[in-house]
Amino acid sequence: ATADQCLDQLGLTHVDLMLIHFPATFDGKGGKAARQEEWKALEKWAKSGKARAIGVSHHCARHIKDIQAVATLPIAVNQVQYHVGMGSSGPMATDDKAFMQSQGILYQ
Q: Angle of helix 32-45 relative to helix 61-68, nearest 10 degrees?
């Protein structure tokens, strides 16, 4: 669904926060150019007054750096899946939490 369709379905004119979900399709399509294009479209939508803040979901440091290369608005949030069972899953278990914090991105 497009961002405008989401607003229509919610019956709202704007949201406080809009997130882009996982940085690729489930069949592995995507990549840097797609992430950047998607982010620029979300920024344009937010700048039209439809979102107070924008962010991402399930993005690692590499994905964030791809976006930061073209971003004119801050990445407010990176919402990730994290639970106690992931504690032994190695360094990626935290979805680069320290990096997100160093960039001023709320790790949620």
A: 60
- Confidence (pTM): 0.85
Which backbone phi and psi does 72 adopt, to 5 degrees?
-115, -10
Q: What 8-state DSSP symbol labels residue 63?
A: H
Query: φ and ψ at 20, to 5 degrees?
Result: -95, 125
Distances, alpha carbon 81 to alpha carbons 47, 48, 78, in Å: 28, 30, 10
Do 80 and 95 form a contact (C-beta atoms < 8 A)?
Answer: yes
Q: What is the DSSP string of 47-59?
A: IIIIEEEEEEES-
Distance CA 89, CA 94 (A): 9
Q: Assess whether pLDDT exceeds 60 at residue 74.
A: yes
